[in-house]
Write a structure and sequence with these properties.
This protein is of the alpha+beta class and 182 residues long. It is built from four helices and eight strands.
């Protein structure tokens, strides 16, 4: 499936290309933004390019999808990143997201994730969308709860990243769940 462009009143979801690598690197090199991400902050743009190439493979193989997030005011600047890491029609999808720190606490990711969720249910025809959160990432937990995800539990030492086994909190939302679609 090709990655369609999506829009909200303030945002655009765009397909990524190599011209966006510097913007992505600026996000992925920031220690605070990467605090709860599954990998360490990027030390150089080659790490970001490797991630970009992995995402291109997922898209090509129809087992993932990603967008750069821009504002309509500055559509040339990628300020965030959204993914469906996997998805299966009538099944489950897993989302991921990150936003440049200077855009935190402005309602941007709330607006973006509502659109991402609706796209998954409507266009990808999934039944369930999951997100995982690292313990301590209170902002991400509040965001998911705000848009209708339910905390389903914590799996002890579920993931191995950043050099150690770590707990992982699971959130889910079903197509049949009530949610604010505005």
């Amino acid at each position: 499936m090709n990655v369609p462009e999506l829009e909200t009143p303030k945002l655009k979801f765009i397909g990524l290309n190599e011209s966006h690598l510097n913007d992505l690197f600026n996000i992925f090199k920031d220690e605070e933004s990467m605090k709860y991400w599954a990998s360490f902050p990027h030390k150089n743009i080659e790490e970001t390019k490797s991630l970009f190439e992995l995402l291109e493979k997922r898209i090509k193989n129809n087992n993932g999808m990603c967008w750069g997030l821009t504002t309509k005011e500055t559509p040339q600047n990628v300020i965030g990143f959204l993914t469906y890491n996997i998805y299966k029609k009538n099944g489950t999808a897993v989302i991921g997201y990150i936003l440049a720190r200077q855009y935190w606490n402005k309602g941007i990711m709330t607006e973006a994730l509502k659109t991402l969720v609706e796209f998954g249910f409507s266009n990808l025809e999934v039944h369930r969308i999951e997100a995982t959160v690292h313990p301590g990432n209170i902002a991400s937990e509040k965001l998911l709860q705000k848009i209708g995800f339910e905390r389903e539990g914590m799996l002890r030492e579920r993931v191995y990243y950043k050099g150690k086994h770590q707990d992982c909190i699971y959130y889910g939302i079903l197509k049949t769940d009530k949610r604010d679609k505005t």
